[in-house]
Amino acid sequence: MVLNHIGVHVRHFDASRVFYDAVLATLGGRRLLESPTQVGYGTNTPDFWLYPLNGADEGVEVHIAFTAPDRATVRAFHDAALAAGAEVLHAPRIWPEYHPNYFGAFVRDPDGNNVEAVCHEPE
């Protein structure tokens, strides 16, 4: 089991982008993908993500993505999560906004964290 990427929700999105721009540059990282609701950092592909919190009372959610060797494993992850009572955030599908072969499924764990299985290989 390999960690694919992690996302962190931050209360001070602008300040956090400035901070991570500076500290990750020392490690060879940089902004690779950006929108008003997310920033993806990495060296070749984004593997560390920042997301802004939208409300003062909103809890801090962590996003964890695990690498799946194939799309069947992503589907099995989704089915196991459903059987365990997880809330489905996104059923297995292609996410072309990330790249043409990004196939992922997203669920909430019992504490409300966003947990994903992702395969980057074609069918």
Automatic annotation (TrEMBL):
Pfam families: Glyoxalase
Any one GO MF annotation of this record: dioxygenase activity
Key words, A-Z: Dioxygenase, Oxidoreductase
Domain VOC intervals: 2-120
CDD domains the record matches: VOC_like
InterPro entries, per the entry: Glyas_Bleomycin-R_OHBP_Dase, Glyas_Fos-R_dOase_dom, VOC_core
UniProt name for this protein: Glyoxalase/bleomycin resistance protein/dioxygenase
Taxonomic source organism: Salinispora arenicola (strain CNS-205)
